Each structure stands twice: as structure tokens, then as C-alpha cells.
Amino acid sequence: MPAVIEPVEARPDQSDGVLRVVQKKIYAHYINLAYTLVIGTYFVAFGLYLYFRLTNLVFPDKIIYKRFCEQHENETVVRTGFHYASTLGAFCASEFIQIVCFFLLTISGNFLRIRRHYRYFISMEEKLLLELRYHIRKIMYSTVLQTFVVYIMSSIAVWASIFYMVGMRDEVMDATSAVFIHLFDAAVAIYFIAFPLISFVYHPDIRCSFQNCVSVPADPNETPRRYNAPFRGAQFPTSTSAVHLTAYKRADEDITEPMDLRVRITTTV
Q: TM spans, by residue (predicted)?
């Protein structure tokens, strides 16, 4: 089974339309574009929230907003607890979508990068992982446009919610509205803490930076990358045939002679 498997639909074709070409271009740079969108949304939201909060501290004077339409000319705009509650609900929903998307994006490297135990031997476990990787990439390709559109819409909802809750400097009319504003501050704090926390706990490159480990690349021509050591904590893989081989050779000591491999395996039965 080949080490690098991509969906057939993702391959370039001269008969592709504009939408299909855009889909394939985005899929080809899926990880980079996804991280750019996630990090960009995060820092824009953080900057907006910090700017509006500092503005409220520096300029504590309240602003009275008036309507400009002829029917309600000069009518004061008043926000009630319902407006704050609905905005808080929209922010929490968008926050949940973005945190889940970032979590799946962070752990996707564990499934898209197969850790090879041997150069010249593919165990049943690795074959299953390759099949899983193929199906994951197929789903990624078929939903790439919808995923990015949904994330962009949720990003706009996050920015708009921050502006509506802390950017408008009108007077808070009742205690219920003040409670919802404090709940919004708590939700924003969770939002800003969740992304660095997920990166620190689940991102494979960040986790591997604390461990001295290099895995065998799936492609012999590929430069080895740093991942968790496959033999740390567990010296034997689950496949029975791989167990016989592991009893004699580790990943960095692969057997190159087929006859030698056959004799060694049969002698252990």
C-alpha cells in the first residue's frame, strides 16, 4: 500500500470548473490556510476586546444613541436583557464551533501523519491507519469549502458580538443586562484561554518539543520528522507478525534481507 494516499477527486484535472479549482487549491494548502484563519480570528478578537475595554476605562462617559429614521426620529436606542442574552447565546455558539474546529485541526496531525515502525514492513495496524487517513482526507476534501465558510461566518459573529457587548458605550439600564455582560466577559476569557491550552496539550509539534524523538518516515525519500517515539513506554506493537519482528529488530535496525526476515520469524513460532 502506498505511503501517501490522496483522494482521487483531489487530483488536478483540466476539465475542472472555477469552483472545483478553488476547492482543490484550498485543499492543497488546507492546514496552512486553516491555521492562518484560526490564528487571525483569535488575534483580531483579542485586539477588539482589549481595545474596547481600554476605551471604556479611558473614556467612561456614556453615549446616547438616537434613531435616524423618519418614523422614530430622535428616539433613544435602549438595549434590554433580551438583547444581551441573545448576543451572549450567539457568541457561545460561535465560540463552541471554533474551539471544536481548532481541537480537531490540532489532533488531525496524529491521523494524517502515519508513524512507521519499519521501513520495509507494514503491519496490519499501519494498514488500518493508512485506510483511516485516506477516509479522513476524503472527508476533508468534500467539505473544505463548507468548513471554511462556516468558520468565517462564526468569526464574523464573534467579532460582532464583542462589538455589540463591549464596543457600544450606552448606559446599562438594568441589573439583568449587567449580569449578562459579566457572563460575556467570562465566556470571552474561556475563548482566549482555550486556544493556547489546546495547542499546548494536544498539538503534536509542541508536545514533541519536550521529547527527543524522531520517527521513521513513511516515504523513504521524505525527511524524518519529530514525533512521539513509537517504542517509548511500549516496546511491542499490537500486530502479531510485527511482534515477532520486534523481538529481534527495532525500528532503527530494520532487517534488509527477506530470507533473513523469514528465518527469524519462523524460528520464533
A: 30-52, 88-112, 143-167, 179-202
Residue 199 lies in a domain: yes
Instruction: Identify the domain containing residue 144 by its residue range.
Output: 8-230
How many domains would you assign to the chain?
1
* H or E segment to which residue 152 belongs: helix 144-162
Hey, which residues does 116 pair with through a beta bridge? 216
Question: Nearest to residue 198, comparing CAs of 267, 98, 85?
Answer: 98
Q: Are 161 and 48 in contact (CB under 8 A)?
A: no
Query: Around Cβ 87, how many Cβ atoms within 10 Å?
Result: 21
Q: Which of 38-47, 136-145, 229-238 has the lowest average pLDDT?
A: 229-238
Say what the pLDDT of residue 87 is.
Answer: 94
CA separation for the pair 253, 117 (Å, rounded): 10
Q: 216 forms bridges with which residues in the sheet?
A: 116
Inside any domain, residue 248: no
pLDDT above 70: residue 115: no
Sign of the torsion formed by the C-alpha atoms of 18, 19, 23 and 24: negative
How does DSSP classify residue 114?
-
Q: Would 211 be classed as within a structural domain?
A: yes
Give yes or no for residue 211 having a pLDDT over 60: no
Q: Residue 210 pLDDT more than 70?
A: no
Amino acid at 53: R
Three-state DSSP at 7 gives: coil
Determine, yes or no, domain membership for 121.
yes
User: What's the mean per-residue pLDDT of the chain?
Assistant: 75
Say which residues have a Cβ less than 8 Å from residue 166's Cβ, sequence separation at least 6: 49, 52, 53, 56, 181, 184
Buried b (16+ CB within 10 A) or exposed e, 104-116: ebbebebeebbbb
How many Cα atoms occupy the beta-carbon half-sphere of 111 within 13 Å? 15
